[in-house]
Amino acid sequence: MTLIPAIPLADLAATAARGLHDLTGSVATVTAVAPGRVNLIGEHIDYCDGFVMPFAIDRYVVIAATPNGRREARIGSGLGESATINLGAPVERGEPKWANYVRGVIRGFQDRGFEVPGFDAWIVSSVPMGAGLSSSAALECATATLLEGLVGTQLSNRDRALLCQKAEHTFAGVPCGIMDQFASTFGQRDRLVLIDCRSGEPTLVPFTDPALTVIIANTNVHHELTDGGYAARRKNTEDGLAAIGKSSWREVSMADVESRWERLGDPVNRRGRHVVGEIARTVAAAKALEAGDIEALGPLMAASHDSLRDDFEVSCPELDTMVTIARDIGRHGGVIGARMTGGGFGGSTVTLCDSARAEEIATVLESRYHAATGIRPEIFASRPSAGAHRLDTMGPG
Ligand code: ADP
Ligand code: MG
To answer: Is 180 annotated in the active site?
Structure first.
């Protein structure tokens, strides 16, 4: 079997509780979970007022915690060094680095006037890290859900997502849009989260057909050299919008970009072509889903990938290889559509396919990708799943 099964949430929670007990000898009283996400279509346009259509996957960050009666948080993750965070003052960035996502969320609560009580916590996760599936947003949203339990409040999904996005901006230094945190909090079983990133309104789109499967293939590469690439792309789109003289990419037509092609210059013109095209493709994909025309998603996903590869330049050879293998399997082999997903420069692809062929498709992706690159990918399927929530029933929130 190539498709890696999900670890049941109850097992993750038990592992987290055991980790907490091993760390501190205490029993978990609050357990919070938040999922990673995969994006079906609408890439690199959440920060351009675009539409995006991700869903929460059945891979989760789980945090088991309990108050410790002190003015500090002690947090372990099995990811190396544990973190000790002083809660007696506004929390700042620090070491170990992985804990900055947690620190940023704590700071968000402090900035909202909440006094965060001391706590001990242990984090476990089934979200692959650095794989374009937003383990960072999962960690942030799980932390926020945990803190809601500890301070005895409940944020709205929107408020939680925005608080977590700010943590990613200011504590992780990634100027991300709203997609990842919205997907991780608003996600629901059997629902895609279609987000209008201009209004900040999510619409839950049913995705229930058991005949359809979404395969996620982690290429297991992450090109560190291009880490500044995300911020650079975002800057390109801001420059482009300013040069076109509109206040939102939603007001920009393809003719607006093409008629200014020389003046915008390369690569800003191609970046703009991606943004306008990708917004249109995502709107078209949402309409097609609503109409039950699943086959229309294939060409839209293909055009999305090509645009991300050629115009936005955020793909990489390994992502292209994985997508090409899926394309070669083709519709007759059960593949409806395939594209890179997430920020790019490595990470994962998403392949929409017939459920009856999913296992067979995964096996071909695995073997041909390994033959082409020498790298073993990590391949699984996920249905749209529940967003951030508490597992315990004790305490407020
Ligand atoms: P992505 O969000 O695509 O997975 P990022 O680089 O944005 O990739 O976030 C990955 C980082 O998030 C990791 O390097 C680590 O610092 C942090 N992280 C994610 N999951 C965990 C976890 N379970 N425990 C500790 N840190 C984690
Ligand atoms: Mg991330």
So the answer is: yes
